[in-house]
Design brief:
5-stranded mixed β-sheet, alpha/beta, 8 helices, 18% helix, 7-stranded mixed β-sheet, elongated
């Protein structure tokens, strides 16, 4: 950990949100780059700039199904006085040696096919009689059904300007251009571009593998019967979904009973597939807070390289937090509180930036904005604590959703922002400007 992590051993010391986040980010390092096939690289972060080896498109080609013509041959053409041209053949997509178009000639051409030598423009088939000797047609007949369409005559009913319906070579990107910058997250459009310029593999930082487990003997798997004194495990689902939303490959372990040895064994078993471990629950000061018991004093004889520190933060919700690394590879572990809102807010503030740091991104945080506080009453906040309240944000205004209780998960489901009340403010009245964290 950084020096900030060792400044105080006083259990009553309150760490700031910023200090805790600084310690986490100073410890988390981007994952090592690997070469991946394109589809395996989806969601990963590009390590190197990618330049264009061949222009796109690599040749002049037609943007329409129609006829490749010379401009002079269709000048002044109309339905009453069409230009009649000799059809010298077909030019299909993929044609390597297209026919040449001379004076008074046309070539039937398909979308994406190379513009044949001598042609200057393409007239859509709807501007012609399709070689049938009648009025304008709506399309071409299949070559297999009417091979004669590649010969004979075609009547063109409209003029065309030079380069009409022609996609110029390099009009998308030119050879030598920068295709994608290092640091780009590869989504479907970026993968399409890489494939289009001929890249079969790409060097990226892999998506981090995040293992999420919740603790508590009271937790029941959703779908099972809920007995007396039991509640459904929502935290492991929420945080696994949040990790995936942040860009990780996330694995949900589920609830572990309040037994320190069981928890320690479970964590050890998960290290093989984790770049980051996230626990929820068991970090406060109760007699059954097993995460602290399992990890606070763990040594090399238990989990090699372990070191997890538990802290109190000057924030609400989410005061109790734990952070450190465990195992032979010093895998980062973030221990979050167990109340649903506390764990989710803690994820957004601390785990999401860690995930994105592992990905090698520089943009680690949710976007923030200034908004006018709406509602019929003000907000109250404990002095010296940075409070994060759920809110609904629209067009520069934010309205509180639900109360301040860290168990109010229904209100969290209605929120798309966190209202930030700074440490030096004990109240914020309607009409005041506040900072909000936009949750997407």
């Amino acid at each position: 950990m950084s020096s900030a992590a060792t400044r105080s051993a006083d259990s009553d010391h309150l760490w700031s949100v910023d200090e805790h986040l600084e310690d986490i980010l100073s410890t988390v390092r981007p994952l090592e780059p690997i070469e991946l096939q394109l589809l395996d690289a989806q969601g990963c972060v590009l390590v190197d700039d990618v330049t264009v080896p061949v222009s796109l498109p690599p040749f002049d080609n037609s943007s329409m199904d129609g006829y490749a013509v010379r401009v002079a041959d269709v000048a002044g053409a109309s339905e009453e006085f069409p230009a009649v041209l000799d059809v010298v053949g077909d030019v299909a997509a993929g044609a390597a040696d297209p026919v040449r178009v001379g004076p008074g000639q046309a070539a039937r051409i398909m979308t994406g096919a190379p513009l044949p030598p001598g042609a200057e423009a393409v007239v859509p088939v709807e501007w012609t009689d399709g070689g049938l000797g009648e009025g304008p047609v709506s399309g071409m007949r299949a070559r297999s059904l009417a091979p004669e369409g590649a010969a004979g005559h075609v009547r063109v009913h409209r003029p065309a300007e030079a380069r009409a319906h022609v996609r110029d070579k390099g009009s998308d990107v030119r050879a030598g251009d920068l295709a994608l910058e290092a640091g780009t997250i590869l989504g479907p459009p970026q993968i399409a571009l890489l494939a289009a310029i001929g890249r079969g593999t790409v060097r990226v930082r892999p998506r981090p593998r995040v293992v999420v487990l919740s603790t508590g003997s009271e937790l029941v798997q959703p779908g099972e019967e809920l007995g007396p004194g039991r509640i459904y495990d929502s935290n492991s689902f929420a945080l696994t979904a949040a990790a995936r939303d942040a860009g990780a490959i996330a694995y949900r372990v589920g609830a572990v009973a309040d037994d320190a040895e069981t928890l320690r064994s479970t964590i050890e078993d998960q290290l093989i597939r984790a770049d980051l471990l996230v626990t929820t629950g068991g970090v406060s000061v109760g007699a059954y807070d097993v995460v602290k018991e399992a990890l606070e004093s763990v040594g090399d004889e238990d989990v090699a390289g372990a070191g997890v520190e538990f802290r109190k933060l000057a924030m609400q919700p989410g005061k109790p937090q734990g952070f450190g690394s465990i195992g032979p590879d010093h895998t980062p572990l973030l221990a979050l509180p167990g109340n649903p809102v506390s764990s989710y807010v803690s994820f957004e503030l601390f785990v999401r930036p860690a995930v994105r740091a592992l990905m090698g991104l520089t943009d680690l945080h949710r976007p923030r904005a200034r908004a006018v506080l709406k509602g019929d009453r003000g907000l109250r906040s404990p002095k010296g604590r940075r409070q994060f309240l759920r809110g609904a944000y629209t067009d520069g205004e934010v309205t509180p959703v639900g109360g301040a209780g860290s168990h109010l998960i229904a209100a969290l489901a209605q929120a798309d922002a966190l209202i930030v009340v700074p440490e030096d403010a004990e109240s914020v009245e309607p009409g005041a400007e506040v900072e909000v964290v936009l949750l997407g």
